[in-house]
Amino acid sequence: MNRDPSLRHPLLERLAEARRVMDELFGVVKPEHLYDRPIAERHRIVFYIGHLEAFDRNLFDQRLFHLPSPNAAYDDLFAFGIDPVDGGLPTDQPADWPTLDEVRAYRDTVRAAIDACFDPVELATAPLSPEESAAQLLEVAIEHRLMHAETLAYMLHQLPVDRKTAPPNASSDRTSDRPLAHETVRVPAGAATLGLARDSGMFGWDNEFGAQRVDVPAFEIDRHMVTNGDWLRFIEAGGYANRACWDDADWAWKEEQRIAHPAFWIPSGASWTLRTMFDEIALPLDWPVFVSHAEAKAYARWAGKKLPSEAQWQRAASGAPHVAEGNFDFRRWDPSPVQAHPDNRSEFGVEGQFGNGWEWTSTEFAPLDGFEPFPFYLGYSANFFDGKHFVIKGGSPRTAACMLRPSFRNWFQGHYQYVYAGFRCVNA
Fold first, then answer.
1. What is the CATH number of the domain that holds 402?
2. For the sheet containing 265-268, what is the strand order?
3. Which of 235, 291, 375, 426 is the most exposed place for a label (fewest CB within 10 A)?
4. What tens digit of pLDDT does each residue of 41-67 get?
5. CB of 239 within 8 A of CB of 261?
């Protein structure tokens, strides 16, 4: 086998880079807090140290090559994350998990075994079928890991500041000299294409395939995302107490959980501070507000507007240079002002749709026409076609550039507050 590093396949280089990103992210947490559970609906942090290599081993084994397991029980233990939607929060205790040394040993052993099996010269071949080629499975492993680089950031964001160590690049400019104009943009009637054609030759996840053309009537949409300053007006107008703004299920959730402000906001006397990854700062009024789908929908109703459908959002994004300029690909730990990236704009003048914060749509996460689940990951999308998850589009500061492709369809449940997701409104 050819092990000359200069001849490594680009996909192997990308896998190595994705590993580096995640390893550095785990390094943010002080070791004594790796068994913490910052978000009640998720596993303890230690799970994710083992999960990524378990996922790769389970994905590659018997499809690309034979990978004897160093610990079959760990293959199962670290196989799947959790996403409870109707209560039933996890109750495990730190003592229920293996020691950190044991988890790291499993990770390192599996990682070394995978690396020893790849022959860069033969990587482009398809050992079983085009649907399970080495290249496609590596893309899945890479993007799965990069997805976790973002969702782990959601967890670490809720970890108290004194339990983390800020890296040297943690601070960045938080202001913009460009004035913020609260205005809408008219998007003329036209077609939007959701997803990818199967013969496109591009990598995508199963829910992206089945390119679907949608004719979209003309509409008006906010030029920028809704800001913290906009949300402050909603709070001061009694939005959380205004029953007319909320659907029945959303109101019941809000009342039961005593939701009275965004999860990233902290009451500070008569004012508010914002929890950033490594600090608490005075509320930046021109940053995008990050809220749940239920909260975003309540705001839109209060404002006499609606959330855009996935097709409207996609139509509004036509011509946007989604990987040229913006706040994404781990460039920053926190958002930028919504008006800070004027070059990241669509042909209609809608700004900042790629990066700086995912954007909720009104569209329930569902399959496109002709959906077929990945044969090697049957539940990736299909398990969430349940009417409780909603499509989010665009990307956040912690979204890898490869997932800013226009066809990418992310999703979260409507009552989950911890995503780096905001929104913009369309006229009702």
1. 3.90.1580.10
2. 265-268, 271-275, 280-282
3. 375
4. 999 999 999 999 999 999 999 998 899
5. no
